[in-house]
Specification:
The chain is α+β, with helices and mostly antiparallel strands and 442 residues long. Helices cover 20% and strands 35% of the residues. The chain has 9 helices and 16 strands. Strands 1, 2, 3, 4, 5, 6 and 7 form a 7-stranded antiparallel beta sheet that branches. Strand 4 (229-236) and strand 5 form a beta hairpin. Helix 7 runs parallel beside helix 8 and helix 8 packs antiparallel against helix 9 (134-144).
Length: 442
Amino acid sequence: MLGLAHQYSFADLQTALIKQIKPLLNLENICTVFNTANIYDLEELLQTCHSFMELNALEVVAGDCFTDLSQKSMIKLLERSTFFAPEIEIFKGVAKWCKINNDVDDLVIQCVRLSWMTVVDIVSTVWPSRLFDCEKLLQAIAEIVGVKTKLSTSRGFYLLDENLATVQHKAEVISGSNSSWLLMGGGNVESKFTSHYIDGKSAIIVKLGAPSFVNHFKMRLWDGDQRYYSYYISVSLDQKNWKRVIDYSLISCRSDQVLFFNQQVVKYIKIGGTHNTANNGFHIISFEAYFKNDVPTTTNGIICPNYNVATLDKKAVVIKGENPSALLDGNARDYDGNKGFSYHFFDKGNLTIQLAQPYMISTMKLLLWDGDGRHYRYLVETSVNNSNWEIAVDLRNKDCRSWQNLLFKERAVVFIRITGTHNTDTGNTGFHVVHFECPSEV
């Protein structure tokens, strides 16, 4: 019926049939349905088949119906890096298929990624099959042992929007003290954390249940006080070749960390602390790993937010200034001469805000106290480590009042230091700010 509906362009009937077929997919009929979807180029049904086969890859390649796939279907399936099963198992399924089907021009066998097997697999299983010539096998062995660079990419388990770093997905912490706490979703910050000693060598290592596509980490650093940490995160498939995907080793971070990077196939995740302002330990309360379709814009691995990150919900804090709770509470209306603002005196410091992690920022917005006709002058500086500061906006020679929309060259920002230098209210030596946000939500 599906073939006839397609042949005679009965679009509504075709759509209805596909809707009926999708929930009926199982290991017995998947190959037949996949062949049909490929014959008629039914994109919606193809995607559903791919999703089913990827979630059940090992069962599919070992199943009796695997040999029923057409050559076109085999190629389309095996070309996908998201079709993940141990490569030796894929080879066994392909070898079985080749005994029954004609692999024209060896197009199917070429889809097997030899260099992602072991040397033992090559010698004991692939070589005796005589499906590859010796030169290709030697090339694969050279890539496996590192003599030559691998020409193919790894397959990986593909699961969208679901935390892969869980016991349910067979993830485990293989390095770090109190490892049992890390993948349990957090808990009492006073006692439930995984840690390592900061010595330049030690790290916390998470092993996923299978090589998986990952582009997003969520992590909560121990935040029972005002300390902050620096760290890096590297990923690997074999614990030998590591790639650093997050490098905040010279940047100050606290509490919740929301991290995005270019997608990688990952099995091992190394989290290495490089600094702690309180002691020589690096402490994590929780850790999660995901693959996300919707990712924010980043520059050099740092998020470029289009929303206010200077909020209590985003774990921003005011680390210097009087009445600090008022500055980030989101209330720009309920204030008078006695409440609703943060401040500092001209001879006693500044207002300093710390974001939870670095963000690429080019705008800020603040509300100077405007209960009368006074004007202020001030300076805004930014830093990623609370030591090296860069001027963002210099208004020390301009009278300003009420709402301030600030624009400056985009840069990575963790700390924002606002220093008042003048108040036109005679005899008043205070600098008063009701509300602050960055980036500015105009």
